[in-house]
Amino acid sequence: MDLRHLRYFLVVAEELHFTRAAQRLHIAQPPLSQQIRALEEELGVELFERNRRRVALTPAGEHFRRRTSALLGELAVACEETRRIGEGRAGELSVGFTSSLPFTSLLPEVLLDFRQTYPGVTLTLRELFTARQFEALREGTLDIGFVRYDGLAPPEDLVLTEIRRDPLRLVINARHPLAGQAQVALSELADEPFIVYPAGVGTGLNSRVRTLCKAAGYAPRVVQEAGEATTQIGLVAAGLGVAILPAPLECVHIGEVRYLPLRDEGAHVSLALATRSGPQPALLRNFVERVQAHLSPEAGALLRQQAAHLLP
């Protein structure tokens, strides 16, 4: 018994006429009759009552028709679902992002675009620090991540692809003597108390700040750690110190806070896509394609050049 036998049976069951069924199937009637007889012999029951005047289903045949119709319907659904998953038009995708990314236009635009383009895909979004995204990628609980990249070598078995650079801003209390300047140099902050992310969270920003301060001739004097950027901004407003954060966070408006550009070379932090190394499924490649559509022309071209394996 194979699918062909079942399909032949269903057409005969619908037509209740072997000649018309054969015409629908584009085969001769004798071979069709032989196939139905072989099916009945395999099952050990008669599926049709036949005489010169009519063809009718037996009770066993009617039961077999209902079950076979449902079976082939489920098979058709399974085949279509499988094709959609293979083409990246259905399935589940887990996406990680750092806390500052929702303050940019990139993440909202990409998510809206992807959901409209691929409505059959379920997106699971996870806000995670960069180091935790790396762990989740290795564990297989995350498919792709937007991470803050400090320029160091990526972790083993992971691939980082830079997609944009955000300038760093000095977050300073509005009553600070430097607050009225158009921009500042890190060398002017050598004696300032710093508010930073906790050392263990691995944001990628801490190492960038320490590198920049070292180039300016000092190590930052850390007086407070805070795991959320908005908390850091609030602590600056309270006069506890200064912070250095990506420019997209300038949209957090607190009356006692100013955001000042830094004059120092390299005063930026990179945003990168993090994926596992090796071939990627169509679903992930489709997502990266929508990311590319919302990058600058230069960044989009660079993404295609450096990470062709991530694109359809």
TrEMBL record:
InterPro entries: LysR_HTH_N, LysR_subst-bd, WH-like_DNA-bd_sf, WH_DNA-bd_sf. It comes from the Bacteria. Belongs to the LysR transcriptional regulatory family. Residues 1-58 form the HTH lysR-type domain. This is DNA-binding transcriptional LysR family regulator. GO terms for molecular function: DNA binding. Keywords: DNA-binding, Transcription, Transcription regulation. The lineage of its organism: Bacteria, Pseudomonadati, Pseudomonadota, Betaproteobacteria, Neisseriales.
